[in-house]
Amino acid sequence: MCFPSFANGPMRRSVMILAKRRxxxxxxxxxLSSLPLLSxxxxxxxxxxxxxxxxxxxxxxxxxxxxxxxxxxxxxxxxDIFSRPDKPRILFWTTVFGEWYSGLSASGxxxxxxxxxxxxxxxxxxxxxxxxxxxxxxxVVFYACDLNASDLPSYRAEGQKWVLWSLEAPTTCDPSxxxxxxxxxxxxxxxxxxxxxxxxYAKVTQRSKPTSYSLERLEQTWRNKKVTAVWAVSxxxxxxxxxxxxxxxxxxMSVDVYGKxxxxxxxxxxxxxxxxxxxxxxxxxxSFENTICRDYVTEKLYLALLYDIIPVTFGGADYxxxxxxxxxxxxxxxxxxxxxxxxxxxxxxxxxxYKSFFEWKxxxxxxxxxxxxxxxxxxxxxxxxxxxxxxxxxxxxxLRPAVWRT
Length: 406
Fold this sequence. Notes:
Elements: H1 10-33, H2 35-38, H3 46-56, E1 60-61, E2 89-92, E3 113-114, E4 126-128, E5 139-143, E6 155-156, E7 161-166, E8 187-190, E9 197-198, E10 204-206, H4 215-224, E11 227-232, H5 242-249, E12 255-258, H6 271-281, E13 282-288, H7 299-304, E14 310-314, E15 329-330, H8 337-349, H9 351-355, E16 364-366
Parallel strand pairs: 2-4, 2-5, 5-7, 7-8, 8-9, 11-12, 11-13, 13-14, 14-15
Antiparallel strand pairs: 1-6, 3-4, 10-16
Helix pairs in contact: 5-8
């Protein structure tokens, strides 16, 4: 727009004032329109995010197929407006059993958070649950049990990965929504060892320096133990029929049952105090899974490995792949519950044999101390104090298609 030139008149001053007000109005409108984006500022990254949004907002329809989109840049090639290396942006499209993961706002308000629960990990990322961040997210995560097939995004940015996540056995939730959308996902992230990204409740790692394990303290603990085994359980009827096995086992040895299915109680809110009591009183703890599924191992095993008590496993995993050799007893390696009971009795009465199940502790350690106090969020949505943060499992994608199935 052109204005007539007035060297010193009131018209020129009026035009200048109007032009200034117009500029201010434009700036205010821009700022107001960007408030939802600026509200992602959990740490000072709002400007980075705003300009990244403008730069990478292009997308294409999933129904049209995925074709090269030159405007999209992988995070490892991306920089922010200050030329700093960018970080992956992960959008949680669904809740996890009705709760937002890792402290994201339950109200669904826009947040872009710097993800910090993973302690000293080399790689970090941003997470959000506001769906407006879809066009600029590097990955979109869908929890299998919360998935609604009619509530998937209508488009996917080129290069964006859709991740189907589950830490639960297929029997825990209805897998039928996956039937119609199984081809929508790029990666799976589950406990299965053939997943694209292998996830787990915890892991056992080799110590950087071997330590001496106090056999004297262990022997004193062993002498004070009075009851053969303990079982803490909240689901009394399961697909794996572990309850039937335990009922038969109790005919041949003493097993104290805690929780909804037994006569003893210890609050899950003080789970670690419960385990401290268990190791003082019992020789063994039954780490029985509710479903016999390949590779399925929950926190029961990893928690037990933190204490001077021997876990007895019951599940479909190859336990030598997830626990140190000689650290557990696999119930399914015995022909009958009676055979298991006879062996447990033998181990409990012989300290030389009993202590052999703890020799691994000088070499390895379990990071189960960082497990959540409660499920079903599973992957550590509530962190506990302990010796360091939960570490990321080695999550190099194997880049082969897989779908979470029964």
